[in-house]
Automatic annotation (TrEMBL):
It is found in: Membrane. Coiled coil: none annotated. It comes from Bos indicus x Bos taurus. One of its GO terms (molecular function) is transmembrane transporter activity. This is Solute carrier family 23 member 2. Belongs to the nucleobase:cation symporter-2 (NCS2) (TC 2.A.40) family. It is a multi-pass membrane protein. GO terms for cellular component: plasma membrane. The chain crosses the membrane at residues 52-79, 91-112, 172-201, 221-241, 262-286, 324-342, 412-434, 440-459, 471-488, 508-528. Keywords: Membrane, Transmembrane, Transmembrane helix, Transport. InterPro entries: NCS2, Xan_ur_permease.
Length: 609
């Protein structure tokens, strides 16, 4: 998922009279030559630091919980179009699978990819083309799968109905991932970024979530009271109570038992809102305040409608490649997912720069960006093989969490990767999330989709908003990105070329609002006359000024275990676009937090977290 709000206030979630402090002997080992830049001076642990093992586990679990909303949302949104709305057990399998694959992809990205502490997980960018493909007449769910009384989830007929749909998604993701690996490992992404500016990115990201208002509204409409409660709680925690510290008991070597302040509402607003609304539904179910008739309004807000999934789910289940069968491929699905891959790559590059600044690392050089995009493509390949129904991307939420916790060690993200792997194997975890009442999910979606839309629009800060040219391009792209898919969905028979496969490709692309809006923004921004400053490219390129931190860049972004320095040192390897090269410059990320450069160096003997 791809949205986060980070601020420069309250840099430490645990602080106050009883801050957690550690001295030289117990704060974990540090690499020689640790980066001493101004951006890292306020960090509790920098990117090359290794915190104590128990702190790695605690913060790894925190990163898992931060990404939880996005990880769970993807399979739950896909469930209806996969004909699984009445099969929570299979939904739990999809949730476990996406946990497991996200863990593998996170470890690959930290060790072999960009090497920054970035979590990997499912992406909303793939949802648009996936839902567009599943809305084709060939893949629309039969009427009997929509009626819970007619669905026998253990019957071979029903199993084949949903499995053939997810196999089609698998095939599209597998082929599109090869394109992403090619673009990344070949260095082609640098060439593409010359033509992609804010006026392309803003409508593309905004239209990831805008077309999903119908699905989110339907889920929330199951019981608007419960959905409104969920929305109220999330907004309350994330906006009004984010600066309120909660005292928590802490045990230290010097102060022994004491209390410390923890910014609970700032870190877990979605999780808290979800759990409280879930508990409210449970109370209303036990007291029979919610209707017990399946056809009555609000019935799906009851917690016992999916209660059997917890008893049916195995304690342990090991996801494996090809668990749903052999993937199938169609041109319609492939072209739609390729459009999503381009959007995901552009967004990930922004996450790389933001993450580097927050953890005090030098801006990522070209070879590291190429490798990061290539490894994300490999992650999508694994997601397609395992059958998550989605791909993987860098998680902006967790980049934001780095700015809050001020712990930038990549060993923490390694711990988060192993936590994801364990959660994917532990079957009861996925089953628990599959039992969340539908209106609670709908309320969460409304908030999350609103934030994603706002994040897309925020890219316009780089362009001249007083320019009629820019206002026209953005407004026209957004409006067409909503209007054209709406018309095509209502009139699919009008798209007729005589070639079925071509008809399906055109229909999938034109019903994907993200593609329509992004393509129009790209076309108009590169053809309508306008200065670099007016288009926002001047400010955009300032973020990529040359840096002199070549030694630091090699230390942070070089391959592990001596690859390229002690092993695989062939001169031929130096010509690979993703291979580390000494003397390559990085790119400087503009500081978003005033006063970073004025801070003094962090004390070596007292670390505040």
């Amino acid at each position: 998922m791809n949205s986060a709000i980070t601020t420069c206030e309250h840099p430490n979630p645990l602080r106050g009279d009883g801050v957690l402090s550690s001295h030289e002997g117990d704060q974990g080992s540090k690499k020689d030559g640790q980066l001493k830049s101004s951006s890292s001076s306020h960090l509790a642990y920098g990117i090359l630091d290794i915190p104590p093992w128990y702190l790695c586990i605690f913060l790894g679990i925190q990163h898992f919980l931060t990404a939880l909303g996005g990880l769970v949302a993807v399979p739950l949104i896909l469930a209806k179009d996969l004909c699984l709305q009445h099969d929570p057990l299979t939904q739990s399998y999809l949730i476990s699978t996406i946990f497991f694959v996200s863990g593998i992809c996170t470890l690959l990205q930290v060790f072999l990819g960009i090497r920054l502490p970035i979590l990997q997980g499912g992406t909303f960018a793939f949802l648009g083309p996936s839902l567009a493909m599943l809305s084709l007449p060939t893949w629309k769910c039969p009427a009997w799968t929509l009626n819970a009384s007619q669905v026998n989830t253990s019957s071979p007929e029903f199993t084949e109905e949903w499995q053939k749909r997810i196999r089609e998604l698998q095939g599209a993701v597998l082929v599109a991932s090869c394109v992403q690996m090619l673009v990344g490992f070949s260095g082609l992404i640098g060439f593409l970024m010359r033509f992609i500016g804010p006026l392309t990115i803003a409508p593309t990201i905004s239209l990831m979530a805008l077309p999903l208002f119908d699905s989110a509204g339907d889920d929330a409409g199951i019981h608007w009271g419960i959905a409104a409660t969920t929305i109220f709680l999330i907004v309350l925690f994330s906006q009004y109570l984010k600066n309120i510290a909660v005292p928590v008991p802490v045990y230290g070597r010097e102060k022994k038992s004491h209390t410390s302040k923890f910014y609970l509402f700032q870190i877990f607003p979605v999780l808290l809102g979800l759990c409280i609304s879930w508990l409210l539904c449970f109370v209303l179910t036990v007291t029979d305040a919610l209707p017990s008739a399946p056809t009555a309004y609000g019935y799906l807000a009851r917690t016992d409608t999916k209660g059997s999934v917890l008893s049916q789910a195995p304690w342990f289940r090991f996801p494996y490649p090809g668990q749903w069968g052999l993937p199938t491929v169609s041109p319609a699905g492939v072209f739609g997912i390729i459009a999503a891959v381009i959007s995901s790559m552009v967004e990930s590059i922004g996450d790389y720069h933001a993450c580097a600044r927050l953890v005090g690392a030098p801006p990522p050089p070209k070879h590291a960006i190429n490798r990061g995009i290539g490894i994300e493509g490999l992650g999508c390949l694994l997601a397609g093989a395992w059958g998550t129904g989605n791909g993987t991307t860098s998680y902006s939420e967790n980049v934001g969490a780095l700015g809050i916790t001020r712990v930038g060690s990549r060993m923490v993200i390694v711990a988060a990767g192993f936590v994801l792997l364990l959660m994917g194997i532990f079957g009861k975890i996925g089953a628990a999330f599959a039992t969340i009442p539908t209106p609670v999910i709908g309320g969460m979606f409304l908030v999350m989709f609103g934030v994603i839309t706002a994040v897309g629009i925020s890219n316009l800060q780089y362009v001249d908003l007083n320019s009629s040219r820019n206002l026209f391009i953005f407004g026209f792209s957004i409006f067409c990105g909503l209007a054209i898919p709406n018309w095509v969905n209502k009139n699919p028979e009008r798209l007729h070329t005589g070639i079925l496969q071509l008809d399906q490709v055109i229909q999938v692309l034109l019903t994907t609002g993200m593609f329509v809006g992004g393509f129009l923004g790209f076309l108009l921004d590169n053809t309508v006359p306008g200065s670099l400053e007016e288009r926002g490219l001047l400010a955009w390129n300032q973020i990529q000024e040359e840096s002199e931190e070549t030694t630091k860049a090699l230390e942070v972004y070089g391959l592990p275990w001596g690859i390229g320095t002690r092993f695989c040192t062939s001169s031929c390897a130096q010509y690979l676009p993703f291979w580390p090269r000494e003397g390559e410059v990085g790119v400087r990320q503009l500081s978003l937090c005033p006063g970073d450069s004025e801070e003094g160096p962090r004390s070596a003997t007292d670390t505040r977290m």
